[in-house]
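Work Package 4 report. The design task specified in the project plan requires that, given a folded chain encoded as structure tokens, an amino acid be chosen for each position. We show below one input record used in the internal validation round.
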């Protein structure tokens, strides 16, 4: 697609959908463009979903291998982003199942669940103010760690909707398409997930504030659903 610039005609970047159609027509360069375009966004999602950056890298590569192998299944006019996320999510679920089977056979599954280094992709969910002092920065770091651990401890069905909606910026109907569930189920799972997250933070804050005032779980700065543009930027 071409557009007129100031004093020149320049070529505008093709949409994700156009790249998928080009790949269908046998243009492998379109896949390279898609990989570069989604490298940070989709890899970040997989890293949070899997809590393992090496496994996330493998799943990311497998995702675009599946895109190449299943490109004939892409329907023209279908939104590309939810389609890509659906493939990535299915690949992540399969990877976790394979990993669990291997861990079970080796008797090491409990070891992985207790590994403090499992959450290798930290989320900078609480932006630090330039005027914050050392104690403020320490409290914010504790809150980031708390949120990361709380989300990682959610059941997979709840964690997936939180990651897609609150961290990747997908709309409810897009998350529903990715997960293959009704929009109402997305909303109910989000409600259940946030309830568990607030309970986790309330339990964390209670000992620290018992001598002062009852803990207020809403003081924890939970991320709001992000726009698609913001979701593609690093956290």
């Amino acid at each position: 697609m071409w557009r007129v610039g100031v004093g020149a005609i320049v070529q505008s970047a093709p949409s994700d959908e156009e790249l998928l159609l080009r790949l269908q027509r046998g243009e492998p360069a379109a896949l390279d463009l898609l990989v570069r375009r989604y490298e940070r966004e989709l890899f970040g999602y997989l890293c949070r979903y899997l809590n393992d950056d090496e496994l996330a890298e493998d799943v990311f590569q497998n995702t675009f291998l599946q895109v190449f192998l299943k490109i004939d299944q892409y329907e023209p006019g279908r939104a590309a982003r939810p389609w890509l996320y659906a493939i990535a999510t299915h690949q992540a679920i399969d990877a976790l199942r394979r990993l669990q089977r291997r861990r079970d056979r080796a008797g090491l599954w409990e070891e992985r669940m207790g590994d403090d280094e499992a959450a290798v992709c930290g989320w900078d969910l609480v932006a630090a103010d330039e005027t914050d002092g050392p104690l403020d920065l320490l409290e914010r770091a504790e809150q980031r760690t708390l949120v990361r651990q709380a989300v990682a401890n959610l059941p997979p069905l709840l964690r997936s909707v939180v990651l897609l909606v609150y961290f990747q910026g997908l709309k409810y109907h897009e998350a529903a398409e990715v997960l293959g569930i009704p929009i109402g189920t997305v909303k109910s799972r989000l409600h259940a997930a946030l309830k568990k997250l607030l309970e986790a933070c309330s339990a964390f804050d209670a000992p620290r504030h018992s001598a002062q005032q009852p803990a207020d779980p809403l003081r924890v700065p939970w991320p709001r659903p992000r726009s698609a543009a913001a979701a593609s930027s690093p956290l």
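DSSP finds ten helices and two strands in the chain. Validation will be extended to a larger panel in the next phase.
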